[in-house]
Amino acid sequence: MTLLEVSHLTISTPGNTALVDDLSFHLERGEALGIVGESGSGKSLSCRAVLGIVPEPLSVVADRIDFSGTDLLTAADEQWRQIRGTRIGAVFQDPAAYLNPSLTVGRQLAEVHRRKRGLRRREAWDAAVKGFGDLGLAVPEAVARRLPHELSGGMLQRVLIAVAIAESPELLIADEPTTALDVTVQADVLDVLADLRAATGLAILFVSHDLPVVAHLCDRIHVMHQGRSVESGKSREVLNSPTHPYTRSLLAAHAEYGIDRVRTKEVEHV
Q1: Which end of the chain is more exposed for a tag (fewer CB within 10 A), N or C?
Q2: Dist. CA 180–CA 157, nearest whole Å
Q3: How confident is the model at residue 267 (pLDDT cuts 50, 70, 90)?
Q4: Model's pTM, two decimal places?
Q5: Which CATH number fits domain 2-262: 1.10.357.10, 3.40.50.300, 3.20.20.450, 3.30.70.100?
Q6: Where are the alpha helices (DSSP H) in 98-164?
């Protein structure tokens, strides 16, 4: 069953330069869809259009951006309050930029539980600690009492994931969440996302410039270049039989980073 459908999305500058040009894609419930492309290809802007946070003065035009029966293009503020951060969660490249540097990470997650779920202070704290533990953070009570600058990049990304899924969303938008992490930590974060999906049926829209990373997690891939989708298909098909020269160039650029291992890896649901 389709959860998200984006139909003929175009995002333009005031001078009518299309930064995203006629993009269409859909995401099924429980599916992981990857959008891959170089910086400036329009992939992150496309995600921001789904979240309703495209910066001014850019204009957004589409036939429809449908999330579970709600057209997000015409959604009222009250509808957005019920969707953004609740039914659609998001994580981004620099988790520290989205956390208050002066509050412990546990307090920040607990506040989400208090505001969204109406939990009492102690209940919210316990829920925050449990959330950190569920994401594989060792000694979660100790982690919860730390400030953001006291945690590593990988730990911060898990904290932000915990915040994003606190309300059990149906969709998680992950916009370059592993870009600033080393290879080992990248793999850990990808495993966290895969485990969440398997355990909860969470749908994931995953954005990256790194094709092997996207292929590791996602069932299907859209390849974007200069604002357009130039190729799409099942991950295995795109990896093994790319049809567009840009996709082939991405594969060639990443060959030395383990693309053959990813090609031969069994990918569930593909």
Answers
A1: N
A2: 10
A3: very low
A4: 0.91
A5: 3.40.50.300
A6: 105-117, 121-134, 140-144, 153-164
